[in-house]
Amino acid sequence: MPTSLVISDEILHACNMEAAEFKQEIAVLLFQAERLGLSQASRLAELPPTAFRQLLKQRNIPLYVYDVADFELDLQNLRELGRL
Predict the structure, then answer these.
(1) What pTM, to 2 d.p., does this model score?
(2) What share of the chain is helix, strand, coil (3-state, %, to 5)?
């Protein structure tokens, strides 16, 4: 069953934001925290995925974080393929 979240006008006023901007900020934060994927975050922000990706790009937020574990897995895969 879907639920709703109500953000009071008082909170929006305190943040100096419109509701749409507030949703985008929450969506960006949850995407950065890896709590929402790109599709879910863009829906929360009420933006098409391409527009949400552009918003992330403007803020220098990567779509994917390539960490040491990813690098080590790539090295292992390349060794198994005989390319290293």
Answers:
(1) 0.77
(2) 60, 0, 40
Cβ–Cβ under 8 Å, residues 33 and 10: no
For residue range 18-43, list pLDDT tens digits in order: 999 999 999 999 999 999 999 999 99
**CA distances to 13, 26, 37, 71, 74 from 47, in Å:** 22, 13, 14, 32, 33
Q: In sequence order, which residues have a C-beta less than 8 Å from that of residue 52 and are 6 or more positions away?
A: 27, 38, 41, 42, 45
> How crowded is the C-beta side of 22, counted as CA atoms within 13 Å?
15
Quote the pLDDT of residue 5.
86
